[in-house]
């Protein structure tokens, strides 16, 4: 039987949360232009194909004429290529007179943190292992803090793509939580469940999973505390109560606590 493949190392080009570009020594490098992050994020997500310069120029500078927009694109691209040279990734961004794109193939694979969330790049089982590692944490949404007023087409793309990667990260964390539950590794399962509650708190399924983990470990009072906090947050923020499934689970756990003689 072959040995399982090791979990992928954390990539050096990080687009989730506040962007970071790390050189081989782990030092941060910065981009000169704010739109450099937008261009890098777009090329990284939409890689393996060339993009017409005219299309990119109109995407990021729709308010400018064609010539001025292309000039701005050249400046942003030159800065991005310079940073990539300092990262030891010279040539990763392919550009000619008419098109720009990230080079296809393995050289651009697993360099970006978003690659760990793409099943076409990193197998899902390997991605789950990566999420389980100490180096992974939820850094935020794709290109956190990047806002491109007036660039409506890019903003539409960014909002859709942010949600795509966010849901993918949630799915991997849910798989990891359920694996730990099946293995009765309750502390690890509770840790992942807590993380899910923090980053996707309006999804009551995460709260129910955390309640079930605590109850299975005999910590019914902790399970009921999870419910109480959820109930407070819903009443304060939305003036509503938990849904019927969550309320029913609370009653089930409270009943078991009373039967066992433990405090509810």
TrEMBL record:
Pfam families: BTAD. Coiled coil: none annotated. GO terms for biological process: regulation of DNA-templated transcription. It comes from the Bacteria. One of its GO terms (molecular function) is DNA binding. Residues 112-254 form the Bacterial transcriptional activator domain. Gene3D superfamilies: Tetratricopeptide repeat domain (1.25.40.10), Winged helix-like DNA-binding domain superfamily/Winged helix DNA-binding domain (1.10.10.10). This is Bacterial transcriptional activator domain-containing protein.
């Amino acid at each position: 039987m072959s040995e399982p493949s090791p979990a992928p190392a954390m990539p050096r080009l990080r687009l989730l949360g506040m962007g970071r570009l790390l050189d081989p020594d782990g030092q941060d490098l910065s981009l000169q232009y704010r739109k450099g992050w937008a261009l890098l994020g777009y090329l990284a997500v939409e890689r393996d194909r060339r993009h017409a310069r005219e299309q990119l120029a109109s995407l990021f500078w729709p308010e400018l004429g064609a010539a001025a927009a292309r000039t701005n694109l050249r400046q942003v691209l030159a800065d991005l290529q310079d940073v990539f040279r300092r990262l030891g990734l010279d040539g990763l961004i392919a550009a000619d007179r008419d098109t720009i794109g990230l080079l296809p193939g393995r050289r651009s694979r697993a360099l970006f943190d978003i690659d760990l969330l793409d099943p076409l790049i990193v197998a899902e089982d390997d991605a789950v292992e990566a999420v389980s590692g100490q180096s992974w944490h939820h850094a935020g949404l794709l290109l956190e803090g990047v806002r491109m007023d007036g660039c409506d087409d890019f903003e539409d793309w960014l909002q859709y793509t942010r949600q795509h990667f966010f849901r993918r990260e949630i799915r991997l964390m849910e798989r990891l939580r359920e694996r730990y539950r099946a293995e009765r590794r309750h502390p690890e399962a509770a840790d992942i469940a807590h993380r899910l509650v923090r980053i996707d708190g309006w999804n009551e399924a995460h709260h129910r999973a955390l309640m079930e983990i605590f109850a299975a470990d005999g910590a019914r009072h902790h399970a009921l505390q999870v419910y109480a906090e959820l109930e407070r947050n819903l009443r304060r923020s939305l003036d509503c109560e938990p849904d019927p499934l969550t309320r029913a689970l609370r009653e089930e756990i409270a009943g078991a606590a009373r039967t066992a003689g433990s405090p509810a």
